[in-house]
Each structure stands twice: as structure tokens, then as C-alpha cells.
Amino acid sequence: MVEKIQRVAQEIEAAQIGNAAELEQFRIAYIGRKGAIASLFDDLKQVAPEQRRQVGQELNQLKNLAQARFDQAQEQLSSTTAGTATEAAFDFTLPPVPNTLGTRHPLSLVRSEIVRIFERIGFNVADGPEIEDDWHNFTALNFPENHPAREMQDTFFLSEDRDKLLRTHTSNVQVRLMENQKPPLRSIMPGRVYRNEAISARAHMMFHQVEGLYVNKGVSFKDLKETLYYFAKEMFGQDTRIRFRPSFFPFTEPSAEIDISCFICKGEGCNICKQSGWVEIGGAGMVDPNVLSNCGIDPEVYSGFAFGMGIERITMLKYQIRDLRLFTENDVRFLRQFKGVI
Ligand code: DAH
């Protein structure tokens, strides 16, 4: 017993207490109710009565030693923390550091807003490659070989045989979705697209679109109209109206161009809508049965609608931006104006 007491005393003296965790470990090991000293006190009952007094005294000394070691370490620790706190204290004489938050790019803001609006009515987001092959960008979408419709979109080809290209629209993702998944499909597909065009205030060789696709049993033109009407109201304000103008796309039949009522002049006529009261935001239509069967979906069973809108176009309308080139120039005076817009 006496030996044990001595051993514990040595341990206590040698204990390393450098931080709060070690201090707590020390307390549990020696001072706590389940610590070494408490258990030695329990053992005292087994000591022969004539030695008990002597051993009891030694035990009490050990207890005092542990407590003293604890107090001293605690004192030391609190004074060193106080020391560092004083050293790290804020220096009020320093000049302020201008710590400004960055801003999100207007195209990212609008893309997220579009995604949020469609997610609320059950669309999920899908993605596809920017380097595409002829099948997914053209052929599967019902662009006949050597058909002038291919010339509607000036393509950057990446290979001599014209089979590798930079996608000219996000419609390629429609094809990939229909090939890989079974209906019902309800997705929107935002992404970057490329066309071989001279850069000006109104055209760029790189821009963004968001594609939409809904394929199911019994999808009708009415569903398309309602969906885009809902989108237009959420995006541009509840009093926005939409109109469909007959148009042509190889991959939809019938096809339409989508206009929204000009939310700047409320249809009165202004220079944003070129006095017409309407502005175009994209194209749409019922997925052509040929496209469905090209992608392995039976057009006798399923029908679908699709649409494609320009994200730059929507952003320019929403924020009245007059030059496309601003989006890629990274002029902070332009970008900073979107501060705080979520
Ligand atoms: N891909 C067309 C373009 O880039 C836009 C488009 C029109 C997409 C009609 C569609 C659609 O999905 O149905 O001009």
C-alpha cells in the first residue's frame, strides 16, 4: 500500500499538464471520485488496524499533493492564455482593410433563378457535353444530312469529317436524356453553347441557353403554354403575358417562337421592344415524333414538349443590358452593379 502511494506520488509529480485537456485528464485520473486516490482510500479498509493511521496520513498527504499540483497547473494555464490574449488584442491604430464581398455574375444569377422557377414545378437539372458529335447536335434532332437547316447555326467543327463540334445549342442534352432514361422525363438543361459568329453588341461566339424537355403520355401544346406562361410570370412579373409565333425547328412540330409582353413599357412600345410591345425569349414546340424514335422512345405512346431560351437574352431584358460583350469583358464596374442581387 505504502509503495503504491509512493508510486502515485511520483506520477503526480511527473505529470505533464500543458493545456486544458491535460488538466482535466489529470483531475479525472487522480482527484476525481473514480480517480487513483479515491480508490486508495477504499483500499484503506483492508490495511491492518495498527497501520491504518500511518497509511491514512500518507494518503492525506498524497491527496494534498495532487490538489496542489492541480491548482498550480490551473493557475499557470489561465495566466498563459491571458498572456496570448493580450498579445493578439486588436491594434486600433491600424488603418482599416477594405474587405469587400465579391458579386455573382449576372448570368449565374439569372441561370439560378431560372432553375429555381422550374424546380418548383418538378423539373430537375440535367447536363451534357460542350464538345459534341454530329448525332447528338444535329442528326438525332432531325436535321437531315446536308440540309440547309444545319446552316441556321454556324458551327465550329473540331474535326475534318465534321463529326466533332462545339455544340450550337443545348438541345443535344435532350437527345442524351431521352437515350438514357425512360419517360416520364422532366428536365431543364442550362449550359454554354458556341456559334461561329462575329462578336458584336448583339451576337457572340459563346453564350448560354437553357433547354427544357417534358416527355410523358398525353403531353400537349397546352402543357407547353401553361409551363412557359408560369415561367414568364415568375421571371418577369405577374402581369406578364406570352404569345407564340409560328416558326420552324427541325426537332419540333409544330414549332413556335416565344414572346413575352414588354415588361418595361407594359406593351406601350419602347426601344427595348422596338416599339412592338413584345420581346422574344426563345423557341419551343412539340417534340417531333422522328426525334422521339431516334432516341428510342415510341411516339405512338409518348409525346413531349421542348423549349430553348437564351440566358443572355433574358438577363439583358431583366437588367436592361445593351451590349452582349459586357458579359465576358469582366469589367468590375459592370459586375459590381449586381451586388446584393440574389
Ligand atoms: N435549339 C434552338 C436554337 O438554338 C432553340 C430551341 C427551339 C430549342 C425550340 C428547343 C425548341 O428545345 O423546342 O435556336
From TrEMBL:
Gene Ontology MF terms in the entry: phenylalanine-tRNA ligase activity
Domain Aminoacyl-transfer RNA synthetases class-II family profile: 110-337
Main location: cytoplasm
Swiss-Prot/TrEMBL keywords: Aminoacyl-tRNA synthetase, ATP-binding, Cytoplasm, Ligase, Magnesium, Metal-binding, Nucleotide-binding, Protein biosynthesis
Cytoplasm listed as a keyword: yes
Enzyme class label: ligase
Substrates-to-products reaction catalysed: tRNA(Phe) + L-phenylalanine + ATP = L-phenylalanyl-tRNA(Phe) + AMP + diphosphate + H(+)
Names of required cofactors: Mg(2+)
The record's free-text note on cofactor binding: Binds 2 magnesium ions per tetramer.
InterPro entries assigned to the protein according to its UniProt record, in alphabetical order: aa-tRNA-synth_II (IPR006195), aa-tRNA-synth_II/BPL/LPL (IPR045864), Phe-tRNA-synth_IIc_asu (IPR004529), Phe-tRNA_ligase_II_N (IPR004188), Phe_tRNA_ligase_alpha1_bac (IPR022911), Phenylalanyl-tRNA_Synthase (IPR002319), tRNA-bd_arm (IPR010978)
Keyword Aminoacyl-tRNA synthetase listed: yes
Residues binding Mg(2+), per UniProt: 253
Compartments reported by the entry: Cytoplasm
EC number: 6.1.1.20
Pfam families linked to this entry: Phe_tRNA-synt_N, tRNA-synt_2d
Protein family membership: Belongs to the class-II aminoacyl-tRNA synthetase family. Phe-tRNA synthetase alpha subunit type 1 subfamily.
Subunit annotation: Tetramer of two alpha and two beta subunits.
Protein name per UniProt: Phenylalanine--tRNA ligase alpha subunit
Gene: pheS
